[in-house]
Amino acid sequence: MSFKTILVVVTLAVVAFAAPSKHAVCSQGRVASNAACCKWFDVLDDLQTNLFDGGECGEEVHESLRLTFHDAIGFSRANPKAGGGADGSIMHFAETETNFHANLGTDDIVEIQRPFAIKHGVSFGDFIQFAGAVGVSNCGGGPRIQFLAGRSNTTFPAQDLTVPEPSDSVTKILSRMGDAGFSPNEVVALLASHSVAAQDHVDPTIHGSPFDSTFSTFDAQIFVEVLLKGTLFPGNGSNPGEVMSPIPGELRLESDAAIARDPRTACEWQSFVDNHSLMVSRFEAAMAKMAILGHNARDLIDCSEVIPVPSKAKSNSAVLPAGKTMADIEGSCRNARFPTLSTIPGPATSVAPVPPS
Ligand code: HEM
Ligand SMILES: *[C@@H]1O[C@H](CO)[C@@H](O)[C@H](O)[C@H]1NC(C)=O
Ligand SMILES: *[C@@H]1O[C@H](CO)[C@@H](O)[C@H](O)[C@H]1NC(C)=O
Ligand SMILES: *[C@@H]1O[C@H](CO)[C@@H](O)[C@H](O)[C@H]1NC(C)=O
What we know:
The protein has one domain: Orthogonal Bundle (Peroxidase, domain 1), CATH 1.10.520.10. The chain is 37% helix and 4% strand. It has helices spanning 3-18, 38-50, 59-72, 89-92, 94-97, 106-120, 124-137, 170-179, 184-190, 221-225, 254-261, 266-271, 276-291, and strands at residues 24-25, 31-32, 148-149, 198-199, 209-210, 242-243, 252-253, 301-302. It binds protoporphyrin IX containing FE and 2-acetamido-2-deoxy-beta-D-glucopyranose (3 copies). The site of protoporphyrin IX containing FE has 26 residues, from α3, α9 and β4.
């Protein structure tokens, strides 16, 4: 090969390599890796302003994050008819799916989100995962979840009983989640979502009661507070799926309590207590997997750059709520000592319901 030929080959190679680059400048000069991602910047602006109250981590964010799970988990390796995974079926067939017992309360956010998806001409499956990823990025210390676009807008309803209930045993939950492709450790990681969560339907007499005392920040507090000795029911006594909580106003799910103490999951649970960055990276990985259940990543376009970068966590470790001591921790991991946590000074903690926005 002459020098000239080599030069031509190299030049051609460079051109060929450069040609498929789809870098695009989108609205407000924002840059996307692929022109197909540009429209998601416009969806982002609309959601932050008109759904998430200007970029807050409030009720609509919590509900949108929950919806990513309830749509996606309609999926089974053993039974392809159980559902299409993260396919938007909970929005397409809302009258069917939101009436399943485990989905109680999801109808609100489905109806609120639907007009946004239609307005922007994006599939319901894409929209639900996008809204959850954007929403949780508003929470302090939050994750930055991968976002792949291009899910089909055509699908079929999921069957009932794909979504775990808080009254289910750990064995039943791990087996259902395993059938969808998740390991016990990944189930624990996904439950970091309950750090920004509250309930309306387990005990309907205490609307908006949170699962931990810092429900507007995506921190490891949930992993400590679920391990504290339960002392009270925050509302009108015991309900199915509820066990005693350690703090007035806080509701503890039976499933969270059991998973925190089960030998199959207790060590992963405990590992997050003083390691926020570990919790976030494991959550991001498990959420990325969940968001494409029923799809092949190769068929989708990576538009992750559209997801905002969340603010940093204030601390890498959770704390003991005021009024609690290390003796209140029901540490359940046999192979590692429970980390020593500092206690917030002041009078015993109690929590107020999530304010409706
Ligand atoms: C593994 C078993 C799980 C069970 C049994 C469970 C159960 C529940 C229950 C009973 C509620 C309260 C709903 C209400 O009464 O309004 C809730 C809320 C919530 N869940 Fe889960 N969950 C599980 C996993 C997940 C996962 C994987 C996610 C991840 C995205 C998630 C995200 C949420 C969020 C964000 C809320 C708060 C919703 C709000 O504040 O409006 N959950 N969960
Ligand atoms: C997706 O399907 C719904 C009907 O279930 C429809 O209202 C919506 O316009 C469709 N969106 C797209 C982008 O095709
Ligand atoms: C609270 O529970 C009691 C029984 O334990 C029941 O009679 C009462 O109606 C409940 N109150 C509300 C507001 O649900
Ligand atoms: C957090 O977890 C990572 C990964 O296991 C580990 O490398 C790091 O040392 C941990 N940090 C703390 C503060 O324990």
